[in-house]
Design brief:
Helix content: 55-70%
Radius of gyration: 36 Å
Distance between the termini: 28 Å
Number of strands: 7
Length: 349
């Protein structure tokens, strides 16, 4: 794929160069007010200078800049170009003085004095500097663009690797919590435990296969969230009320996978009490290109001696948001009236 892409870029670049030089050769005819085509005049004053320019341009663009400037052999580069310019100026002088190039045609008005040899040398020298300068500018720009492209490609690969690592961290964590739920059900309700294993297999299939892509459909992610909440509800008593508010999606919205699992898990971990009533709320909203997720739970802060929560889930979430949506997300947590609140806004545009 990369080879094909490079070939296409090379072909495109060659086509651009061909079109530019063709235009430069045709322009004298396009802007000429004289309908009689003077091929001899165009050859002397337009085509030959363009030939000199193209020779200097491509020698520098294809060979000298890479071989000398990029290798920091600046004086060799300058010397070779000065030698080439001297040769081309000398050739131009010889051709102009040849019988086929009568110098009286240089001017259109006979009353004007003919240009001197020194003037022609000066003019040709200045003229030949331009293709060298342009070739350096284009080559350095292309080199910079290539470097930036390679840098972006490396950063993208690192980003992809880091995100994959975060997913691998989340999957065992998620699986471990789910197994604890099933273990608690086996003695109490074997039939429900069996059904839960079946549902867990669906969740794991989504984790292992569907989340391989960088983005998934938001509808699939919400369905996964629903099933995960149902799984977590099996661990709580009637003293905890869980409310959900999930929209019906009529359009496809893509989002990075597994952004909400840690927040749901956190709500169940810190929002459930064995002795007191508690409430948990999960809500999704879609506003234009923004996905808004809200989680609220009665706050039962853990004792400092309780080491059951390692905090890896929220750490992974913050890291994933930084990698997947840099500058395009808003993640806030707060405690109000003994209710822990989470707001996560993601700009999917």
């Amino acid at each position: 794929m990369n080879v094909l892409k490079n070939k296409n870029q090379t072909g495109y670049k060659a086509a651009i160069h061909l079109v530019v030089w063709l235009l430069l050769f045709i322009l004298p005819y396009l802007f000429s007010t004289n309908h009689t085509v003077d091929l001899e005049r165009h050859l002397k004053f337009t085509w030959l200078p363009l030939v000199y320019s193209s020779v200097l341009f491509y020698l520098n663009y294809l060979l000298f800049i890479d071989k000398f400037i990029l290798e920091k052999k600046i004086w060799v580069f300058v010397g070779i170009n000065l030698l080439l310019m001297a040769i081309l100026v000398s050739i131009d002088l010889q051709l102009r003085n040849h019988h086929f190039f009568n110098i009286k045609d240089v001017v259109s008005l006979p009353a004007r004095p003919r240009p001197t040899k020194q003037w022609i040398i000066y003019k040709d020298t200045i003229y030949l500097f331009f293709p060298i300068i342009i070739s350096i500018a284009i080559k350095i720009t292309e080199k910079w663009a290539k470097t930036e492209s390679e840098k972006n490609a490396r950063e993208k690969e690192i980003l992809k690797s880091e995100l994959q690592h975060l997913k691998y961290q989340l999957q065992p964590h998620f699986f471990f919590n789910s197994l604890n739920t099933i273990y608690a059900l086996i003695e109490r309700s074997p039939a429900l435990a069996q059904e839960t294993v079946h549902n867990l297999s669906k969740l794991m299939r989504y984790l292992l296969y569907d989340t391989v892509s960088e983005k998934v459909d938001l509808s699939d992610e919400i369905e996964f969230v629903k099933q995960y909440i149902a799984l977590m509800k099996l661990r709580i008593s009637d003293k905890t009320t869980v409310q959900t508010n999930f929209p019906v999606l009529y359009e496809k919205i893509k989002i990075a996978p597994l952004l909400f699992v840690s927040l749901i898990e956190n709500a169940f971990k810190h929002g459930v009490s064995a002795n007191n009533r508690s409430d948990i709320l999960f809500s999704f909203a879609i506003k234009k290109d923004k996905v808004i997720f809200i989680a609220e739970n009665t706050n039962f802060p853990k004792d400092d001696k309780d080491k059951s929560g390692s905090g890896i889930g929220l750490y992974n979430l913050r890291k994933q948001l930084e990698l997947s949506y840099p500058g395009k997300h808003n993640f806030k947590t707060s405690v109000e009236n003994n209710v822990f609140k989470v707001l996560l806004e993601i700009d999917t545009d």
